[in-house]
UniProtKB/TrEMBL annotation:
Keywords assigned: Membrane, Transmembrane, Transmembrane helix
Keyword flag Transmembrane helix: yes
Name of the molecule in the record: DUF4129 domain-containing protein
Entry keyword annotation includes Membrane: yes
Organism: Microbacterium hatanonis
Residues of the Protein-glutamine gamma-glutamyltransferase-like C-terminal domain: 138-206
Transmembrane spans: 67-90
Amino acid sequence: MTAPAILTHVLAAAPLTPDRDDAREWAERELSDPRYAAAEPNLLDRAARAVVEFIGGLFNGQLSGDWGPVAAIIVAVIVAVLLVAALLIWGRPRRTARLPAATTPLFGDADERTAADLRRDAAAAASAGAWNDAIVLRFRALARGLAERTLVEVSAGTTVHGFARRTARVFPAESHRMDAAAAAFDDVRYLRRPGSEAAYLAISALDDDLARARPALAGVS
């Protein structure tokens, strides 16, 4: 018998429709191919799918039984942990943080004395006739006092004339006296001009008046 005849005989003898056992065997043989194993989801894929399905059920209201309260607790804990982590990593917003009044530099100098301390030292300098020191100290006492009351902000880069303008917005009636006090401070601190008792007394009177005055626009700085 020739080869074509043998092939024709075998094909004719083979069943066109396999029975149950043959079908199962063929399916197992086909699925044992490595390409099918590579296409199956691994453990990580199944875990990710389970998490997605859980969250989806949480928001779709599909959780039943005791899962509702448990899910709410889990979500609350996760949110709290994220908030604490954010605070530890980034901290409070820098724009809202202000230095305490007693640690804020005053016109270029890191003076940590309170307003009361500065007034006392200014009076001591005036008693000794050191008018330059007395004027500088009393003007700083004025600035520190307003900063302690949180009426006028004194930042690290604030100049005496910038401070005078800020103060004038809170105490408009004292605008001219503030300009004169800032000029007196400039004269003795930067221009090296001799101070006077009159200038010291004018700044002291202004400081006393502002300490008793009610601001026109409280909180503006």
